[in-house]
């Protein structure tokens, strides 16, 4: 199936005869494979008599060779999947198997992708970036303070380098463009919280998605913002280079070294917000973040700190 998709990914028409020759099958077998593609991964294929077949729109497929080679330069293993339940779940399985880390897991599609607070992460085939990095963390979970915020900085830097100049952060783990969500971060941890543990850094970036009726909040994508198809391999490699540098800095200096930069890129700095934790709603003004990554709010004339986890942050009155 992957070979057939590679032949069609340019979005141009290809005759059944040419496709059959390339695959070594008959034209009727090509049609059956195309029908199976539509059923299995939900992509739309147009058939026009005399012209052949084409995808409804071009795709940017993951390139195994380029991705493995690019990440080998960082010292990372790279595992690439066509369809998987969740890249975070697979990265956790890899970490718990005793495999050599760091290991990056990428996929064309997720069937059970997830975001913060148990939300489903919409994962259409070959449209966005589904990215999970498994790391060994010596010294326990105290080494994780502010890590998800540092990851957010790596994502924002990557998007700005790619041309999304107004990409910014929303505490704790969202990346926004024009008030719309373009990416999110999800960290999951396993192991001994006081000694050796494994952390999975999950990142989802909307790259070429142009429509979805299943997303329950305002969203955008790189393709929508920049007006043309984006190379997902280029985005993945650029993100990994930035993330590798930030991870090294965080390990050496901690989040405190990045706090001011994070606050400079926080889109809700100085704004009135409502923070929900369970049944409790706290209203205040965003002052910034602490050296541990906790949100600092001015509440009734005093400063209060709130950690991430099962919390939701909204603009006041939203």
TrEMBL record:
Pfam families: BPL_LplA_LipB (PF03099), HTH_11 (PF08279). The keyword Transcription applies. GO terms for molecular function: ATP binding; biotin--[biotin carboxyl-carrier protein] ligase activity; DNA binding. The keyword ATP-binding applies. It comes from the Bacteria. Its EC number is 6.3.4.15. It catalyses: biotin + L-lysyl-[protein] + ATP = N(6)-biotinyl-L-lysyl-[protein] + AMP + diphosphate + H(+). GO terms for biological process: regulation of DNA-templated transcription. Keywords: ATP-binding, Biotin, DNA-binding, Ligase, Nucleotide-binding, Repressor, Transcription, Transcription regulation. InterPro entries: aa-tRNA-synth_II/BPL/LPL, Bifunct_BirA, Biotin_CoA_COase_ligase, BPL_LPL_catalytic, HTH_11, Transcriptional_repressor_C, WH-like_DNA-bd_sf, WH_DNA-bd_sf. GO terms for cellular component: cytoplasm. Belongs to the biotin--protein ligase family. NCBIfam families: birA_ligase (TIGR00121), PRK11886.1-2 (NF008847), PRK11886.1-3 (NF008848). Acts both as a biotin--[acetyl-CoA-carboxylase] ligase and a biotin-operon repressor. In the presence of ATP, BirA activates biotin to form the BirA-biotinyl-5'-adenylate (BirA-bio-5'-AMP or holoBirA) complex. HoloBirA can either transfer the biotinyl moiety to the biotin carboxyl carrier protein (BCCP) subunit of acetyl-CoA carboxylase, or bind to the biotin operator site and inhibit transcription of the operon. HAMAP family: Bifunct_BirA. PANTHER family: BIOTIN PROTEIN LIGASE, BIOTIN--PROTEIN LIGASE. This is Bifunctional ligase/repressor BirA.
């Amino acid at each position: 199936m992957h070979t057939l998709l590679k032949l069609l990914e340019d979005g141009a028409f290809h005759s059944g005869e040419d496709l059959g020759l390339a695959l070594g099958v008959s034209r009727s077998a090509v049609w059956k494979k195309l029908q199976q593609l539509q059923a299995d991964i939900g992509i739309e294929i147009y058939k026009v008599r005399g012209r052949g077949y084409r995808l409804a729109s071009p795709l940017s497929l993951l390139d195994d060779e380029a991705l493995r080679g690019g990440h080998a330069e960082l010292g990372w293993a790279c595992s690439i999947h066509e369809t998987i339940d969740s890249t975070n779940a697979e990265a956790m399985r890899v970490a718990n198997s005793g495999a050599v880390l760091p290991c990056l897991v990428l996929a064309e599609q997720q069937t059970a992708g997830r975001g913060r607070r148990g939300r489903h992460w919409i994962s259409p085939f070959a449209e966005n970036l589904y990215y999970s990095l498994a790391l060994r963390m010596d010294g326990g979970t105290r080494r994780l303070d502010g890590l998800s915020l540092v990851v957010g900085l790596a994502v924002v830097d990557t998007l700005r380098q790619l041309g999304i100049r107004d990409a910014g952060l929303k505490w704790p783990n969202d990346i926004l463009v024009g008030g719309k969500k373009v990416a999110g971060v999800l960290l999951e941890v396993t192991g001994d919280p006081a000694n050796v543990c494994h952390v999975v850094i999950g990142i989802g970036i909307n790259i070429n998605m142009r429509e979805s009726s299943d997303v329950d909040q305002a969203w955008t994508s790189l393709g929508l913002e920049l007006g043309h198809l984006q190379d997902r391999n280029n985005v993945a490699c650029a993100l990994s280079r930035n993330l590798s540098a930030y991870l090294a800095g965080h390990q050496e200096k901690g989040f405190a070294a990045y706090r001011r930069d994070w606050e400079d890129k926080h889109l809700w700095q100085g704004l009135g917000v409502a923070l929900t934790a369970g049944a409790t709603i706290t209203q205040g003004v965003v002052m910034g973040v602490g050296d541990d990554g906790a949100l600092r709010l001015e509440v009734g004339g005093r400063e209060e700190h709130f950690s991430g986890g099962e919390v939701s942050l909204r603009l006041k009155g939203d």
